[in-house]
Write a structure and sequence with these properties.
By secondary structure, this protein is mostly beta strands. Helix content is about 0%, strand content about 50%.
Length: about 120
């Protein structure tokens, strides 16, 4: 079992920045990939980026590339999502997730464990 706890959400004005963090505990040695997702009401959960737990290789979806960056601090069993130049359309609940098996970094399916989600609100 892997437990994930996210923190760092909140409210910010357009153009601002936030850094989300997700700390894993439990069987962290079993993690292959960590992913960041977001979801708004009535929409599917959207993959934003992912990172290989051990190698640090990252993937970023085109829609947020240049504004969002995924990174990790393995020593602290933590992954981060740095979000810059935030826009109102970035308002959503953001989730981190852990996947045990090896799939392509761009694959949005087959994540095994999820954090509780953290709200990000971007408004003037």
């Amino acid at each position: 079992q892997v437990q994930l706890v996210e923190f760092g959400g909140g409210s910010v004005q357009p153009g601002g920045s936030l850094r989300l963090s997700c700390t894993a505990s439990g069987r962290t040695d079993s993690i292959n990939t960590m992913g960041w997702f977001r979801q708004t009401p009535g929409k599917e959960r959207e993959l934003l980026g992912s990172i290989r737990w051990k190698s640090g290789v990252t993937y970023q979806v085109n829609s947020v590339q240049g504004r969002f960056t995924v990174s990790s601090d393995i020593a602290k069993s933590t992954v981060h999502l740095q979000m810059n130049n935030l826009k109102p359309e970035d308002t959503a609940v953001y989730y981190c997730a852990a996947r045990i098996r090896n799939y392509d970094l761009a694959a949005r399916a087959n994540y095994d464990y999820w954090g509780q989600g953290t709200q990000v609100t971007v408004s003037p």
